[in-house]
Write a structure and sequence with these properties.
heterodimer, A: 312 residues, alpha/beta, TIM Barrel, eight-stranded parallel sheet, 11 helices, 8 strands, globular, B: 496 residues, Aldehyde Dehydrogenase, Chain A, domain 1, Aldehyde Dehydrogenase, Chain A, domain 2, 2 domains, seven-stranded mixed sheet, six-stranded mixed sheet, 16 helices
Amino acid sequence: MAQAPVLPRGFELPLEPRLPRVGSVDAVALEERAASLAKRSIKREAKVFALELAVRMMDLTTLEGQDTPGKVAALASKAIRPDPSDAGIPSVAAICVYPNLVPSAVARVEGTSVKVASVATAFPSGQSPIETKLEEVRWVVEHGADEVDMVIDRGAFLSGRYAKVYDEIVQVKEASGDAHLKVILEVAELGTYDNVRRASLLAMAAGADFIKTSTGKLPGAATLPVTLCMLEAIRDVYEETGRMIGMKPAGGIRQAKQAVQYLVQLHETLGVEWLTPDLYRLGASSLLNDVLMQLRKEKTGAYQSPDYFTVD
Amino acid sequence: MTDLERKHDRTPVPKEWAYAPAPESRDVVSLDERYGHYVGGKWLEPSETYTTISPATEEPLAEVGQATPEEVEAAVAAARDAFENGWSGISAAERAKYLFRIARILQERSREFAVLESLNGGKPIKESRDVDLPLAAAHFFYYAGWADKLEYAFPNRRPRPVGVAGQIIPWNFPLLMLSWKIAPALAAGNTVVLKPAETTPLSALLFADVLRQAELPPGVVNIVTGDGRTGAALVKSEDVDKIAFTGSTDVGKAIQRELAGTGKKLTLELGGKAANIIFDDAALDQAVEGIVNGIYFNQGHVCCAGSRLLVQESIYEPVVEKLKRRLTTLRVGDPLDKNTDVGAINSEQQLEKIRELVESGEQEGAEIYQPPCRLPEKGYWFVPTVFTNVAQSYRIAQEEIFGPVLSVLTFRTPEEAVEKANNTPYGLSAGVWTEKGSRILWMAERLRAGVVWANTFNRFDPSSPFGGYKESGFGREGGRHGLEPYLRFDNEPSHD
């Protein structure tokens, strides 16, 4: 089993079935703070900076039963060159696909900066035996996935079997090898911010490179307050251990304006050091075109018809 | 960074993300060059004037009147006349209608008022826009609802208006304090002479235009501007039945001495040195937000500001560390910029007072922390400041600074927290941060403060009474309680 990384205060090993006190979150005040940060007015060059950063941080995602190699190929092209008419627009960070489509995705992005992320561990429910999950993880990594997006076992978490959740993450981390591990908490199923904080600390202690809000398969995916809650947990781990963990809100982020709000929140919570795709991703399937449209508006002063942006 | 991180090649990280200026437009406000006093529904040409400025730029905004005792008397006479000949005779439902109208007009013109409030007072536009204006309108709406229900508010006591109310308000929330004063006074059937603070008269003068729009009968509300001399003349005026004052404890004491034996009713809302108490089981990140909101909201120009932080010793280090980091993200500057968190200090005089007390803190041995911060060259500014290693005996732990300066003290047990929190001549507000409900109640029973906030701070609502213990004053504003000072009841003599 992998060596567990240094733990935040109040989180000493060995981890018993019940989690030690990890502090709590006040929902009212958290939501108030998130709402107040969302009111920042980001204009002109500051806005262009944010929008370009949002493109570079994007995990362009397709997670459908109807996904095909053709669909993934189109997505990969869009990821590499989001706006064919503007070479100044950077590539996105990664494309995020189901395991079966990893080989197609890898072939398409080869030689570019775009990474391939694969969901794994019986995404989205996580309700499979651990052997199956690990087999899946090894398979996607063998086929060239740079990043693995795993789901935690919410059933185990909600019944208080934290050690099981922890052990599973440690094993998946080991199976992932050099691939980056993003741990999806599926916050909509955790019910409270206290649980989100607890799960965040648990995932980070178990070796997550990134923590991620949602699968995108449930209503109530990423929200500003829940992301803030996770950023604060990341900050506490950094303060305690010096480890810089990444964050990925996913699901429900569709407009450029929202992306800017997420980045403002990141900037004012974790600071400028986190403003990199190495430490922050936006998981989205339909956000990119709105960002491109806003970028072009900032450059030309006018909104263009949606028909000028490719639908992939 | 640990070795774990180094093995990955990282993409370069930007040096900074500077937000572009996002100023709210000043064009929504048109100011006259010169203002008189608003008396009997007309503008009275002032015999003396002074210049009111923007504290953020020191730019002159307008000439306003310095009311003499004679001018104050004229305003009081207009209020008396309106009270005797009309206002006290109209139906309560009619009175309510005027108040509802004023509330709606304030909402409609909220952007204009918010910009003016920030311009003349120095507070960030996000606060005047999101706090001052919505609350000011809410106060008028709330008291409009009481106007025809006074018999129900005070059953079997036959509530009657007092008469002419003289109201003196401070510069920290000019329009909001105006509404705290005027709304209950009118709802109870009184007429009013209001004196806004010397440094922030403009929103009250613009409010006169709201009264015109609402077609409030002349003389029901009169507004005289000026410095302390004008306030003193209003307090001394024979024909005033009630004085309501919000401001410093020193002036409050002087007013109380002046009114002793006159039979005039008095309410005082004075200073504070509130304790914000953080227990070790509190939600820390949110508590830190509460600390910041408690002391840096409105540059700390808040009588109920949480200016003393009491932290349980076991969490002292993480709390102070989090607080200092949070301070580096506060944006100090142009009050009209929508991204400004901390605006300008209201006046040169106030800035001097803050500087003097901060100096005393350093001399007495407290450790000062101020985040790196570029301040504008013109105007009155003070960097958000935290003092650690503060002893209870230091001046910065005892005296009201009324600026963005926090003193951090520690405690070990709940008993000690209560003892330290109560160990002040003031008693206006307190904050308790804990996840334990029973401890909140235990603390609230023992804290000698008019308001105790639990897991929040500086939260106001028109339905909630507000006021102090001890040298923080007496009488309540807000809620049903806020009507009482403006009413006379059976068996209660009038002042004449």
